[in-house]
């Protein structure tokens, strides 16, 4: 805001004045925080009605003050189940305290909500194969490298038609085309044919696209964004849950001394983004 005001109106203001102005503007636009938290049960229930399959759960303290919330939109869950690889990851924001260690309480919170809400309500079905032969750019780049590298291999078929022995120098790898495994384990991790599988597919009469997971195909990528997230009506038309809900109060936030930290703590083995 400081740089924008200086550029647009040639007005120089300090940080504290900008922060106070921003808080006043937010309060004018979004009204009082206490009223917003009081509407939370009706907002979540209406969101669930307008977007079937939506899951939510929030908890309050003993004095009915907001503690935390879990929310997963129905269309996002459907896309995760039907079009994505069954992988759940935490982003790059490491959970570190002042001692640069992982807080046990936060780890338990993530374990509970990731395992219960995703594990129980978002079962991943068996991913059937779709032979559309249209790949994403990432899959094309990696397959091209593996196709080029497979020329250096000595290939031998075993007594079983689906088992192949690949010799690379002094190393030997077994490729199982039936169970889609390779001793290098790159194939199982990436779900993209490694150079050993690429070499084997040529002699087995198959096509390398047949061994590629559907998550790398553009049709799957498009289907992920096929669902529509419905907007909500005016707040006056929100519906309270039928089982009732106690009033939710705004949390008591104690302002910390000093200016808030703008970047996370870097670990000893991490490289700064500025490098």
From TrEMBL:
Chain ranges of the SWIM-type domain: 173-205
Keyword field: Metal-binding, Zinc, Zinc-finger
Pfam families: SWIM
Membrane-spanning intervals of the chain: none
Keyword Repeat set for record: no
GO molecular function, one term: zinc ion binding
Superkingdom: Eukaryota
Database matches in PANTHER family: MUDR FAMILY TRANSPOSASE (PTHR31973:SF195), POLYPROTEIN, PUTATIVE-RELATED (PTHR31973)
Name listed for the protein in its UniProt record: SWIM-type domain-containing protein
UniProt organism field: Perilla frutescens var. hirtella (Perilla citriodora)
């Amino acid at each position: 805001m400081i740089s924008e005001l200086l550029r647009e109106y040639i007005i120089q203001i300090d940080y504290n004045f900008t922060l106070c102005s921003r808080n006043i503007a937010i309060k004018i636009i979004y009204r009082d925080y206490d009223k917003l938290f009081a509407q939370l049960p009706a907002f979540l229930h209406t969101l669930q009605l307008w977007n079937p399959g939506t899951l939510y759960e929030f908890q309050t303290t003993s004095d009915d003050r907001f503690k935390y919330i879990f929310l997963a939109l129905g269309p996002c869950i459907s896309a995760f189940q039907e079009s994505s690889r069954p992988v759940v990851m935490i982003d790059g924001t490491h959970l570190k305290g002042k001692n640069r260690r992982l807080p046990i309480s936060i780890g338990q919170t993530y374990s509970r909500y990731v395992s219960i809400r995703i594990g129980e309500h978002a079962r991943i079905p068996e991913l059937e194969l779709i032979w559309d032969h249209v790949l994403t750019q990432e899959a094309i780049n990696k397959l091209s490298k593996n196709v080029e590298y497979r020329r250096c291999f000595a290939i031998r078929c075993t007594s079983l038609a689906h088992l192949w022995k690949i010799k690379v120098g002094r190393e030997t790898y077994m490729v199982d085309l039936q169970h889609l495994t390779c001793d290098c384990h790159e194939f199982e991790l990436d779900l993209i044919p490694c150079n050993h599988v690429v070499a084997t597919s040529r002699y087995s009469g198959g096509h390398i696209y047949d061994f590629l997971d559907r998550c790398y195909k553009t049709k799957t990528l498009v289907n992920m964004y096929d669902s529509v997230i419905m907007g909500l009506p005016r707040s006056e038309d929100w519906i309270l849950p039928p089982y009732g809900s106690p009033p939710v109060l705004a949390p008591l936030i104690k302002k910390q001394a000093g200016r808030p930290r703008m970047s996370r703590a870097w670990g000893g083995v991490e490289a700064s983004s500025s490098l």
